[in-house]
Design a protein that fits this description.
Strand content: 15-25%
Distance between the termini: 36 Å
Number of strands: 18
Largest sheet: 8 strands, mixed
Structural class: alpha/beta
Oligomer: single chain
Number of helices: 18
Bound molecules: iron/sulfur cluster
Length: 452
């Protein structure tokens, strides 16, 4: 599979970590013509944009050029994420069904060009793919994962689990992460979170009592009841939420680093699950590593509609099948489905190809996730409208936003009809297969006969 190398590499001042040096060496080896430039946040762009750029094309041209560049820089602490660097609670709101989980931001953006990509909304002003070079710094991510796990277990043991976490509770967990960040020493080894909690309970109590957030009183009141020993509850750490998890793995070896970090017995017992979500077939590192039962790979299988860059989906399927054989837990995503006159034919063909190229009977196969095109309202108005005129026209013609939903979607009757048709077809062709919906409200799950 063709591995991607940037045409322009922007390097922030002071980049000298092992990871930063590895990326620079490998980019130079993979593309000897690469142009290296200093990168400074807020400084002039590193992109070589045309000088005469009509206003109506500006956003689109910047987006296209950004995909061919790469920035390497350090990730800073985020006050709103409890002063952690790489982790925050993934949020879903309203009636949308979504597990409680963390986004692991090892990179921003992606070199592929999917016009519907939701990352255009969250990273509107930062379209250039970026790799954070302090991810593998000694002990940094380990400590953040422990803090995140402890905070989420404390939160859910206090407030229970709903069908999504919502904005309010996301903030409470971030606040609790901030309290734990102050209470827990900088240098940690991979000890069970129960041990971490017991050793630092007095400090945790002190900072909880000083907290200005009234919701921390709920946690404080529960302090003597927490139990982190026989944890059934698992929480995912998705390293492909605001990037593609593996597309730059040949530059970073981040998969090796993450699998080693997450595959200890302690991490498993603490309830950590590592998720790689990808539209690449960049599986070379994974194939060399022993799979761990708390590592999952989620491979997106879609036709090339409004998409440029990823390998042909048959190649991805074959790669996913190899991972399955090696013992990885794999799930497949058919998301987002884009409505067109021949949608059913197109997506049934994908199900046929899954049946041919992938062993759905393997005990390591997890499930198929299906979802339909949706847009955050700001992303549609600010970015899709300016960058992708055809797709914006499609959204205008076929999508609406109803009260209480943050997203533009196809009409619910149409979604239900398409989901039911595809679920029936998949279950008829591959009996026993588990199917779930992506980012859909509870009533849609119920209408198509699925239980979250
Ligand atoms: S592969 Fe995923 S992250 Fe990359 S552009 Fe496409 S949708 Fe966005």
């Amino acid at each position: 599979m063709a591995k991607l190398f940037p045409e322009i590499l922007g390097i922030e001042a002071g980049q000298n970590s092992e990871l930063a040096n590895r990326i620079v060496d490998r980019v130079k080896a993979g593309n000897p013509q690469v142009v290296i430039k200093p990168y400074k946040s807020g400084g002039p762009t590193i992109l070589n944009l045309p000088t005469q750029l009509p206003a109506r094309d500006k956003e689109k041209v910047i987006w296209q050029h950004a995909k061919r560049a790469l920035i390497i820089r350090e990730k800073c602490k985020r006050k709103e994420h409890g002063y952690l660097r790489f982790l925050h609670v993934f949020v879903a709101v309203g009636d949308v069904v979504e597990e409680y989980q963390f986004t692991l931001s090892m990179e921003n953006e992606c070199p592929y060009s999917c016009q519907f990509c939701y990352i255009q909304g969250s990273l509107e002003k930062k379209p250039i793919p970026t790799i954070f070079t302090n991810l593998q710094d000694s002990g940094v991510l380990l400590r953040e994962v422990k803090i995140a796990l402890l905070a989420m277990h404390m939160h859910t043991q206090t407030h229970g689990l709903l069908h999504n976490i919502g904005w309010d509770q996301q903030k409470w967990v971030h606040w609790l992460m901030g309290v734990l960040n102050k209470s827990i020493p900088i240098n940690l080894s991979d000890v069970p979170i129960q041990q971490l909690f017991d050793a630092n309970k007095d400090e945790i109590k002190k900072y909880l009592s000083q907290s200005k957030n009234p919701r921390m009183k709920d946690i404080e009141a529960n302090l003597d009841k927490f139990d982190f020993k026989d944890l059934k509850q698992k929480f995912k750490f998705n390293c492909g939420e605001i990037n593609d998890a593996l597309v730059f793995d040949h530059l970073t070896d981040n998969s090796k680093f993450l699998i080693e970090l997450f595959s200890s017995e302690t991490m498993k017992n603490d309830g950590a699950v590592l998720l790689f979500r990808t539209k690449s077939a960049n599986f070379d590192n994974l194939k060399q590593l022993p799979p761990s039962e708390n590592t999952r790979v989620s491979v997106t299988i879609l036709p090339a509609i409004y998409v440029k860059g990823p390998p042909d989906y048959i190649g991805r399927l074959k790669g996913a099948e190899q991972l399955l054989k090696l013992g990885y837990q794999v799930s497949l995503n058919i998301d987002p489905i884009i409505f067109a006159a021949d949608s059913m034919k197109t997506y049934k063909k994908i199900i046929d190809d899954i049946k041919v190229h992938f062993n759905v009977q393997s005990e390591k196969f997890h499930r198929i996730t299906i979802g339909m095109l949706r847009f955050g309202s700001k992303n549609l108005d600010n970015n899709i409208r300016k960058r992708h005129i055809d797709l914006h026209g499609h959204a205008n013609d076929h999508m609406t936003r109803i009260d209480g939903d943050e997203k533009y979607r196809y009409d619910s009757d149409k979604r239900i009809e398409i989901y039911k048709t595809l679920i029936d077809y998949a279950q008829a062709e591959m009996p026993g297969i588990e199917v779930e919906l992506s980012t859909e409200p509870l009533p849609i799950w119920e209408a198509v006969g699925l239980t979250p």
